[in-house]
Amino acid sequence: MVRIIIGSKNDKQYLNEIEEIFNSLDVPYMIQVNSCHRNLRGLIKLLNSIRSGKKKTDVIIALANSAANLPAVIAGYLKISAIPVIGVGLSGKRIGGADSLLSIATIPRNVPLLNTGIDEVGMYNAALACLNLLAMRDKNLAKRAAIFFNGVK
């Protein structure tokens, strides 16, 4: 199960391609809206249920705008749970995404957060990274992903 956590409903516009990829390869995923700024208690409740195993999660993709704290908060909170967290920055309206990209890329030591870029390219690369991570445990998915990767230009 891939859990995609976005900070705002407005961020759903970046998910079309990743949904197509996951649907075509039968990768189960769930999209959740939860801001670490507007609903920290709700996010902590979700992360506790993931960490305890109540909500099955193999990989998390977290999208965020501006300072992009959401991916870092999730990665920091779950760092002892061995659940990979992939952060994708969004360009937003301010400085072309440099703020979100830098906030994900410059997190402190001991916070395992992968960074795949910003906007649609970052989301696409996050989908590919998820496929690689999941394929290590699922031989059938590995075969489907290999066919997909061979068709990618």
List the helices and strands and how they pair.
Elements: E1 2-6, H1 16-24, E2 29-33, H2 40-51, E3 59-65, H3 69-78, E4 85-90, H4 98-105, E5 113-118, H5 119-135, H6 139-151
Parallel strand pairs: 1-2, 1-3, 3-4, 4-5
Structure, explained:
The model has no long low-confidence stretch (mean pLDDT 89). The chain has helices at 16-24, 40-51, 69-78, 98-105, 119-135, 139-151; strands at residues 2-6, 29-33, 59-65, 85-90, 113-118. The protein has 153 residues and is an alpha/beta fold. The protein is 45% helix and 19% strand. It is globular, with a radius of gyration of 15 Å.
Strand numbers in spatial order across the main sheet: 2-1-3-4-5
The percent range for strand residues is 15-25%
By DSSP, the count of extended strands is: 5
Rg value: 15 Å
Mean pLDDT: 89
Task: List unreliable stretches of 5+ residues.
Answer: none
Helix content estimate: 40-55%
